[in-house]
Every structure is written in structure tokens, then in C-alpha cells.
């Protein structure tokens, strides 16, 4: 049988083309119901873990979900009890720690943890702290709750938050990921996206520490009527903001890495991705600032609306990220098929990490479940099974019979 999309020869019983990922059994040409990094999920989904942790989504997604859930619950309880210093610290470091553990779990740094963490997290964090200190302290903005000026929004503050901060902060967040993505061992689309997420959550962590240092150094406040405001702020700053920053930066960094072999560099696609990230950041900063005036200075309703606004933006951003990554994986596989092979799997016998079915030689996708080989850590792509010989061709057989 021939794939109608890339003209590759495929076994008759294949559900998906192992080269381009085309769904051969349905009319869903764009695979909108089968996300390339997690085929049992649609592309238009709000699944957070499979979006920001694509290379671990098929292995143990619940581990990350539980870790994030426990951190969120602990943060809310601490804020409700007035333990603001601890609540801020937990909120600031929760997602970065979970994400670095994810990098370790999938060995994305390929046994080079120090350069990766230093470039994507620590360097970004230091630059974030310096820049945040400059615009929050030196420019006269509130370092407690942005928008706490009871007189109403200030034009200068709004201009800073919707122009200066989004542009400069996004450029800062691009430094580490672009340096890593330009190295041959990290030039994959998924690598660029993941390093962008690391930089984004690292920036958010250090920015939160600087903006709320008065809370950290102010001691325990104890339970009080402001608990709703405290909870809303720590949830926004510690969970919603890092995910927005990380997803937006990851989107731009993925465009820098590009689709095929070797990184694409500073292409128009990267410029578009960078502009999208800046727009999302501007909408987030400006929205939270303006909503902070609803109900008066320090009101709970204003803080809650800020969280709602952030969640809405995050939801839209997740859909955008999934769409870009999905199309990128499919286009990269089609480009690879046009060259006559895969750059991401060997010809040795290997098994799909998701459904455990044997992969056809030089596969970009599993022919059974449609999972993208690029959504699997590089160390596990095309690794031969101990004691097994090379896979035979599929003429007259299916990928499942090669085992």
C-alpha cells in the first residue's frame, strides 16, 4: 500500500504511515484527533503535561501531575495560613524543580546537566533578577501587587508593563535556549521547545522572588481577611505565570530549532514566534495590572480576576503550542520522507515507547498508534533490543510481525 501523502510504501494493516504520520484509516488528513506527541489526545486540548512535557507524556504523566498538584495544594494552604514567605518560595520553585526533574527523567541534557541547567535556567534567572529589580524598584512600580496604586492606572506604568517588560524579558529568555539549540546535539524541534520552557519558568521564578521580596522578608502574617488575595497572588505568580512564560518562550525557541536536520536559526518563523511570545506577555502583564484596580487597592476580586485572565491566556497558548508542535512534527516527517529516510531513528529493531509495538525500520512515527519518534528522548530512539538482530524489511509482513 502507498501512503497518499508522502508516497511511501507501507504495510496494508498500518493505521499510520511510519514516515509522515498520515492517518491511513480515517479521513482526518491533518490528524486533528491524534496529537503527534500523544495520539490518544486531540490537538485542540488543554492537556498541560503532554504539552509542556511532550517527551515524558507517554511514560509517566501522572507523576508530574501529582507533583504539580501537591505543590499547588501546599502553596494554597500556606498562603491561607498566612505563611507568606514559605508560600512564595514554594510557589516560585515548584514548577522549575518539577521541570528540571523532567529533564533528568528523559535525559534531555544528554548527560550534560551543568551546561543545560546553567544556560537555560541559572543564566536566565540571574538576568531576570537584575532586569526585574531595575524596572520594579528603580522605575517606581509597586514591588508588591502590580496595580496597587489606589489612584488608578498610570500611563507610564502601563507602557512599561506592556512594552518594555514584554520585549526585553522575552529577549532575555531567548539567550540560553538559542545558545543550546545552536549546538548540534540539541538542534531538535523538541529540544528547542523544552529549553524555552526551562528558561521561561526560570525567569518567572526569579522575577517572583524580586517582586515579592517584601513578603519573603516580612515574616508570617497569620490567617486573616486577606487570605483570598494572598492565595490568588501566589497561584498567579507561582503557577500561571511560569506556564505562560515557559510556553511562549518555548514556542519561539522551537521555531529557531526548525523542522528538519540542523537548526533553522533566525528565520521569519522564529520572528513570528518571538512576536507571538511578546504579545502574550504584554497581554498578561497589562491585563493583570488593569484588573488589579477592580474593587480598589488590594481587593480580593481584583486578584481573582487576574488569575482568571492568566488562565484564559494560558489555555489559548496551550492550544497554540500544541498546534505548532503537531504541525511541526508532521511537516518534519514529511520532509524526512521526501529525502528518503528518517533522521531520528535507526534501522535496528526498536519498539514504540507508548504502545510497545515494533517500529518499522527508519520510522518517524509508530505505524500502530501514530506516536512521533521525536516525542521520545533521543537516548531511546532506535535502540536495538538486547539479543535481537536487525529488523527485516516489511515486504509481505507488518511491523508487528517483525518481533
UniProtKB/TrEMBL annotation:
Chain residue ranges for the region called Disordered: 384-403
GO biological process, one term: proteolysis
Keyword hit for Membrane: yes
Residue spans crossing the bilayer: 86-104, 116-135, 193-215, 227-249, 270-294, 300-321
Leader sequence residues: none
A Pfam entry, by short name: PrsW-protease
Protein name as annotated: PrsW family intramembrane metalloprotease
Organism whose genome encodes this protein: Kribbella qitaiheensis
Source organism phylogeny: Bacteria, Bacillati, Actinomycetota, Actinomycetes, Propionibacteriales
Amino acid at each position: 500500500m502507498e501512503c497518499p501523502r508522502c508516497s511511501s510504501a507501507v504495510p496494508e494493516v498500518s493505521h499510520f504511515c511510519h514516515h509522515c504520520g498520515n492517518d491511513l484509516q480515517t479521513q482526518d488528513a491533518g490528524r486533528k484527533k491524534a496529537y503527534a506527541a500523544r495520539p490518544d489526545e486531540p490537538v485542540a486540548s488543554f492537556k498541560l503535561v503532554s504539552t509542556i512535557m511532550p517527551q515524558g507524556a507517554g511514560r509517566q504523566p501522572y507523576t508530574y501531575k501529582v507533583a504539580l498538584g501537591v505543590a499547588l495544594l501546599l502553596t494554597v494552604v500556606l498562603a491561607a495560613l498566612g505563611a507568606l514567605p514559605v508560600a512564595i518560595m514554594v510557589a516560585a520553585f515548584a514548577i522549575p524543580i518539577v521541570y528540571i526533574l523532567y529533564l533528568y527523567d528523559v535525559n534531555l541534557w544528554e548527560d550534560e546537566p551543568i551546561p543545560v541547567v546553567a544556560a537555560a535556567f541559572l543564566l536566565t534567572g540571574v538576568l531576570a533578577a537584575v532586569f526585574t529589580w531595575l524596572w520594579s524598584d528603580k522605575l517606581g512600580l509597586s514591588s508588591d501587587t502590580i496595580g496597587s496604586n489606589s489612584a488608578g492606572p498610570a500611563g507610564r506604568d502601563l507602557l512599561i508593563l506592556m512594552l518594555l517588560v514584554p520585549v526585553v524579558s522575552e529577549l532575555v529568555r531567548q539567550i540560553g535556549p538559542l545558545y543550546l539549540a545552536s549546538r548540534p546535539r540539541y538542534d531538535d524541534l523538541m529540544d528547542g521547545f523544552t529549553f524555552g520552557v526551562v528558561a521561561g519558568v526560570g525567569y518567572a521564578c526569579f522575577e517572583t522572588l524580586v517582586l515579592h521580596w517584601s513578603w519573603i522578608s516580612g515574616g508570617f502574617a497569620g490567617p486573616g481577611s486577606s487570605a483570598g488575595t494572598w492565595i490568588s497572588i501566589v497561584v498567579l505568580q507561582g503557577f500561571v505565570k511560569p506556564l505562560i512564560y515557559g510556553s511562549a518562550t518555548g514556542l519561539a525557541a522551537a521555531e529557531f530549532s526548525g523542522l528538519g536536520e540542523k537548526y533553522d536559526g533566525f528565520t521569519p518563523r522564529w520572528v513570528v514566534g518571538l512576536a507571538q511570545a511578546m504579545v502574550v506577555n504584554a497581554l498578561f502583564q497589562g491585563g493583570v495590572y488593569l484588573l488589579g484596580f477592580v474593587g480598589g487597592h488590594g481587593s480580593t476580586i481584583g486578584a481573582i480576576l487576574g488569575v482568571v485572565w492568566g488562565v484564559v491566556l494560558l489555555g489559548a497558548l496551550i492550544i497554540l503550542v500544541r498546534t505548532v508542535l503537531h504541525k511541526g512534527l508532521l511537516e518534519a516527517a514529511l520532509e524526512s520522507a521526501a529525502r528518503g529516510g528518517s533522521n531520528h531513528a535507526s534501522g535496528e529493531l526498536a519498539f514504540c515507547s507508548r504502545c510497545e509495538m515494533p517500529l518499522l525500520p527508519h520510522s518517524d512515527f509508530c505505524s500502530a498508534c501514530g506516536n512521533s519518534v521525536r516525542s521520545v528522548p533521543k537516548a531511546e530512539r532506535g535502540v536495538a533490543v538486547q539479543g535481537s538482530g536487525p529488523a527485516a524489511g516489511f515486504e509481505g509482513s507488518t511491523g508487528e510481525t517483525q518481533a
